[in-house]
């Protein structure tokens, strides 16, 4: 894949970045070099590498799924700045 000046200008306008014609001409070879490196990564044989989600092994620390006391609406609403009819009351943000 190759990038030309028109493509650089289009990408800049999509990103809402104002660039001059001289800057666009200067960015063409730089972006082509970056795309060349990406193409080189596509040539690497990764068939023996298993997919992973992180570089280091992570395990999630989960709490036990234990049934606790429920039905504490009044106690929870005591923490609210305002409550009405068993619900949190918040300021209106949409007219």
Automatic annotation (TrEMBL):
Q: Which organism is it from?
A: Sphingomonas rustica
**Biological function:** Allows the formation of correctly charged Asn-tRNA(Asn) or Gln-tRNA(Gln) through the transamidation of misacylated Asp-tRNA(Asn) or Glu-tRNA(Gln) in organisms which lack either or both of asparaginyl-tRNA or glutaminyl-tRNA synthetases. The reaction takes place in the presence of glutamine and ATP through an activated phospho-Asp-tRNA(Asn) or phospho-Glu-tRNA(Gln).
Q: Which Pfam families match?
A: GatC (PF02686)
Q: Which Gene3D superfamilies match?
A: Glu-tRNAGln amidotransferase C subunit, N-terminal domain (1.10.20.60)
Matching PANTHER family: GLUTAMYL-TRNA(GLN) AMIDOTRANSFERASE SUBUNIT C, MITOCHONDRIAL (PTHR15004:SF0)
Q: Answer whether the UniProt record assigns the keyword Acetylation to this protein.
A: no
Subunit structure, interactors included: Heterotrimer of A, B and C subunits.
Which key words tag this protein in UniProt? ATP-binding, Ligase, Nucleotide-binding, Protein biosynthesis
Q: Which family does it belong to?
A: Belongs to the GatC family.
Q: Give the reactions, separated by semicolons, that this protein catalyses.
A: L-aspartyl-tRNA(Asn) + L-glutamine + ATP + H2O = L-asparaginyl-tRNA(Asn) + L-glutamate + ADP + phosphate + 2 H(+); L-glutamyl-tRNA(Gln) + L-glutamine + ATP + H2O = L-glutaminyl-tRNA(Gln) + L-glutamate + ADP + phosphate + H(+)
Which domain of life does the protein's organism represent? Bacteria
InterPro entries reported for this sequence:
Asp/Glu-ADT_sf_sub_c (IPR036113), GatC (IPR003837)
Indicate yes or no for the key word Nucleotide-binding.
Answer: yes
Put simply, this protein is called Aspartyl/glutamyl-tRNA(Asn/Gln) amidotransferase subunit C
Known EC number: 6.3.5.-
């Amino acid at each position: 894949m190759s990038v030309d000046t028109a493509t650089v200008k289009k990408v800049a306008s999509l990103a809402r970045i104002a660039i001059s014609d001289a800057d666009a001409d200067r960015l063409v070879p730089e972006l082509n070099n970056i795309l060349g490196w990406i193409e080189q990564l596509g040539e690497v044989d990764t068939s023996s590498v298993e997919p992973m989600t992180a570089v280091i092994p992570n395990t999630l620390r989960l709490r036990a799924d234990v049934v606790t006391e429920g039905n504490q609406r009044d106690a929870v609403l005591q923490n609210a700045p305002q409550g009405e009819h068993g619900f949190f009351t918040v300021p209106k943000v949409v007219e």
